[in-house]
Amino acid sequence: MFVLVAAIVSGVSSHARRTDIVIDFPINSHHIDRNFSDNTRQLQRLDSLLGPNRDKTLSIDTVWVRAYASPDGRLDSNRELSLRRMVSIHDYLVGTLGLDEEKIYGMSSSVPWQTFREMLAARPFDGSDKALEIIAEGDDDNSADNTRRMNRLKRLDHGRVWAILCRDFFPEMRAACTLVVCTSLPQPQTPPAPVTETESVTETTLTPAQPQPEPAATTESEPRCSGSWRLGTSAAAWAAAVANIMGEYDFACRWSVALAADYSGWNYGKTTRKYRVFRLRPEVRFYTMPRHQGFFVEAHAAMIYYNVALPSWDYRIQDRDGRRPAIGGGIGIGYRLPLDRDGRWSVEAAVGAGAYHLDYDRFENRANGALVDSRKRFFFGIDNVALSITYTINP
User: Fold this and answer.
1) H or E segment and range at residue 50
2) Which of 258, 204, 200 has its CA nearest to residue 390?
3) How far from 186 is each of 48, 75, 98, 253, 270, CA to CA, in Å?
4) Mean pLDDT of 181-185
5) d(CA 260, CA 350)
6) pTM confidence score
7) Once rounded to an integer, what is the mean pLDDT over residues 197-219?
8) DSSP letters along 176-194, please?
9) What is the pLDDT of residue 182?
């Protein structure tokens, strides 16, 4: 969005008249598009105010240009994009309207945080108070603080607040620039100060723009919902002395793939009580809420080598010759709950069921028990119970 504020003093009156002109830029663009939004009408107003056919009884002293970008995006990329938008307006004023470039001064600002705060305060909704608390923390011009704000906003109320911000607030902030045009009577007068934000800005005299590449595609984007990596481990498995680890990757919004590995290679106090197992379990998950939180459903496959026995059993069961693992798969459900504001740490509970083909040997359940026979069968039942802690490497 590009805003032009003109303060005009006529030749026969000492009163100033201010005119607001708003020109929008498409997302991730610094080129002026007359057919975008209300730009046709706004540019006509701008032409009549500053163009060759303007009122010659008015003297233009200074033109202030201010550029913004919406909060969703990297701070350094937003700064670059806002500067290019400011330069585009400079080129239009000089090249199209014939304005003296010595009268043009620029102020670029990556994100209009104070405007964002005022918008939230003026248009409250369920969750806006918490959003205001988040964007009040830290320094507006600190990249790390900006990133923390964005991550916390994205996770607020499982993404519901972020969806409202993207729909109802960010479009009005996106690509915002401000020009203050000061005109005066023949006698010298001090031009009014430009409209300011609370964040620090850099004032500079604009020079004709040199050709520059398009800004990075990640500057202004839809909320990030994929590309995160996680590590997790099940406390329930550790309680049974089964070492385990899981890796997960978010490959799409609400979708992820995971691979879990479990290992136990010991007896539990005696040779007739053992749960020796090695399991590989890939799965695909679908989350019902944004940011890969809340309820999820999954489909999995598994390969399991096993050697199990209990004191009450007559036989010890082991996959045939130690080379015929159980092969199968199934489905499951679970729930993930974030533990901190940044969403790095989470706890999740999951349960699954599956069907497996078993090809196994039976041995007498005693030390060095003899082989009794070999059998094949299908198993269907619970194949996973987990209470896990997960850590997101790159939220």
Assistant:
1) helix 39-50
2) 258
3) 21, 43, 21, 61, 103
4) 53
5) 13
6) 0.47
7) 46
8) -EEEEEEEE-SS--PPPPP
9) 53
